[in-house]
Amino acid sequence: MMEESSELLKARKEKIKELKESGVSLYPNDFKVSHTIGELHQFTTLSPEALLEKSITFGENGITFSAAGRMMAINNFGKSSFIRFKDRTGQIQAYVQKNIVGNDGYAIFKKLDIGDFIAIEGPLFQTKTGEWTLLAKSFRLLSKSVRPLPEKYHGIKDPEKRYRQRYLDLIMNEHARDIFVKRSKIVSTMRKFFEARDFMEVETPMMQPLPGGAEATPFKTWHNALGMELFLRIAPELYLKRLVVGGFEKVFEINRNFRNEGVSTRHNPEFTMVEFYQAYANYEDLMDMTEEMFRTIAMEVNSTLQIQYQGETIDFSAKWKRIPMVESLSTIGGIDSEIIADSAKLLEFAEQKGIKITKKERYGKILTKLFDTLVEPKLIQPTFITGYPVEVSPLSRKSDTNPDLTDRFELFIAGREIANGFSEINDPADQYERFVEQASQRSEGDTEAHIMDADYVEALEYGMPPTAGEGIGIDRLVMLLTDSPSIREVILFPHMKSV
């Protein structure tokens, strides 16, 4: 295969040499496109009268168009050739005939290859089979490709190669292109959703002196001029809440976060989230908003509220379930409700089930680890799990009815977490005590426990209104709405080990 590729490369370079010697410019930059290929297809449905109304220029052989794109197929028939070329809007057939473009022109055309960018000017006509085709009255080479594209029939089978050379994947794989077109539409719709509700889009630091807003291991860097260590953000949360303190009562940020964790079908060390905060709202308000947002996005992107994901039909239209975590452990996880309040019995149960939990784990951590194993994979339909323990929710407001729990939810769809939201702590004394507790957990070996952020506590001391906030994983949402099994399918350039 390598020898074949080498021979093809050698042949292409010889063609390039011959084209240069013929005086052909290999990379001109003065051609103007009159219509995209998508627009050409629209013209084929119009009557001659409708075309006249659009004031399209008529030549002696009909309406003349100029279009450009990458050649994807060439079929030679002696003194004529059919090609297929595509741009960002679609693909169309073109017909190049020797007696129209001339002997010299056709000789140059015969030296072109699949993968080259070409410009064609001429009218549209229908072939005997009824296919609309652009007749080349003239053509130009716009960019000569050196390396051959992968063979179309086999495409790129190796996923690693697809991710490492995403540009080839996008050229050869229409499904991959569709995923990222949908991704763009999802983000655009989300942005419009917030703006329509008077949220303001903001930007917060990606390099931070303290890694806060989530429990995760950060990436470290060093700032030479300041002479200090900085961290790539694991979340923008504490900065966004500082803005609420400052009077911006509705803010959102579509942001990149970085967490020095493992790579899997669900995790990439660099990922995209939207975080938003609303004053005078609570976590229940955000659950309502999240349902509305997801339905809006699903209809805009897929035109349906019943989506297919990996063989499951997921229904966004029905009222989404809201289940307290403790209740879910018994009704879904199969844990006897009589032992849920007993840490020792829970540890014994976990050992029987082969779930690894150390004896030094606090009660809240035990509950969440059991939940992660026994409940989360079973939450296929959209489900809000509420009432998370205080120990695992250092930034969440305590419940008024049970101070051991918080006013927090996580949204699960297709057996994975999609969003996390809660009513925010706006009592600076409570927040300080939570940070102290997290520091204690760090001293016990929990490297992901939250770091004390005294500046944030000081900000709260100036007063923050009652507020609720939420983060939604955009990559996982895109996976869901494009039926993609791996996060690498929805990130243009996922992180990979060096070869």
Structure explained in plain terms:
This protein has helices at residues 2-21, 37-43, 48-53, 98-101, 103-109, 159-164, 166-172, 174-196, 237-245, 283-302, 325-331, 343-352, 363-374, 428-443, 454-461, 474-482, and strands at residues 58-59, 62-63, 65-76, 80-87, 90-97, 117-122, 124-126, 132-135, 138-143, 200-201, 207-208, 220-223, 228-232, 250-258, 270-279, 306-309, 312-315, 321-324, 383-386, 408-413, 416-423, 467-473. By secondary structure, it is of the alpha+beta class. It folds into two domains: 2-149, OB fold (Dihydrolipoamide Acetyltransferase, E2P) (Beta Barrel); 171-333 and 375-489, Bira Bifunctional Protein, Domain 2 (BirA Bifunctional Protein, domain 2, 2-Layer Sandwich), CATH 3.30.930. The strands form five sheets. It has an eight-stranded mixed beta sheet, sandwiched between helices. Strands 7-8-5-4-3-6-9 form a seven-stranded mixed beta sheet. Strand 7 (124-126) and strand 8 form a beta hairpin.
Largest sheet: 8 strands, mixed
State the strand order across the main sheet. Answer: 10-14-15-22-21-20-19-18
Radius of gyration: 29 Å
DSSP summary, beta strand count:
22
Unreliable stretches (pLDDT < 50, length at least 5) are: 55-61
Proper CATH architecture of the largest domain: 2-Layer Sandwich
Mean pLDDT: 92
- CATH fold-type name of the largest domain: BirA Bifunctional Protein, domain 2
